[in-house]
């Protein structure tokens, strides 16, 4: 297998620690990924790359930074209280690994329930491989970047997705906003599931209410009459 270590990928060495680079190399060497082609988004706590699999399909590779000191304090409440993570890791790198695994499990639950999310493909340590939302290396736009033709029908579709996510997958997204919804041709896709919690998390209801408020706030700026949280999730 030829590993393509492109220009962009060289920056891996400037950004990631040795352990992360070893993980990426292992993923390439074992054929889970053919090549990493370029950075899509570089944030404070993660970097998202475009990649290609052996079968030629496009993927997004989300690599969580293990050096971020704020990571622990900001994320701990989304791990603690989630029954899938009874023992929250003490050291930052294990905690970041749990976070990547959590995003992977959440995506699996969501996709099994039929919610449009990137397909969970593989996770190892702090490296997560998911289906690419977009075409020809170009990611689909975010909700905040598109001007919708019929915003009310998009609003209704997103509300339906959140209900399906809650009722069937048993999940609350927890960081829903116009930044975490992608709009490929014709339908919305929810992304960024690291913080999503199961409905038995003690704060699940608060997170759900906040998600709906964020969504409603955004759609109100588009002139849409939105439905209050209590009406959407009244009987839940
Ligand atoms: N599956 C995907 N396909 C294509 N692009 C993606 C995919 N997942 C994420 N991206 C791109 O990467 C960006 C960041 O992804 P995501 O929201 O999951 O990470 P994040 O943790 O919120 O990062 P940050 O908070 O630093 O923006 C997205 O806004 C999108 O542009
Ligand atoms: Mg995001």
Structure at a glance:
The chain is built from eight helices and twelve strands. The longest helix is centred in the middle third of the chain and has 21 residues, at 92-112.
Strand-pairing-aware structural class: alpha+beta
- Main sheet makeup: 6 strands, mixed
Cα(first) to Cα(last) distance is 51 Å
Query: How many domain regions?
Result: 2
What is the gyration radius calculated from CA atoms? 18 Å
Q: What is the CATH homologous superfamily assignment of the largest domain?
A: Phosphorylase Kinase, domain 1
Structure description:
This protein has 236 residues and is of the alpha+beta class. It has 2 domains: 6-137, Phosphorylase Kinase, domain 1 (2-Layer Sandwich), CATH 3.30.200; 139-232, Transferase(Phosphotransferase) domain 1 (Transferase(Phosphotransferase), domain 1). Helix content is 38%, strand content 19%. The protein is built from 8 helices and 12 strands. It has helices spanning 7-10, 12-15, 18-29, 70-79, 92-112, 151-167, 204-221, 229-232; strands spanning 4-5, 35-42, 46-52, 58-64, 120-124, 127-131, 134-135, 138-139, 171-172, 181-182, 189-190, 197-198. Strands 1-2-3-4-6-5 form a 6-stranded mixed β-sheet, sandwiched between helices. Strand 7 and strand 8 (138-139) form a beta hairpin. Helix 4 packs across helix 5 (92-112) and helix 6 (151-167) packs antiparallel against helix 7. It is globular. The protein binds adenosine-5'-triphosphate and magnesium ion. Adenosine-5'-triphosphate (ATP) binds at residues 40-41, 43-46, 48, 60, 62, 118, 130-134, 139, 142, 180, 191-192.
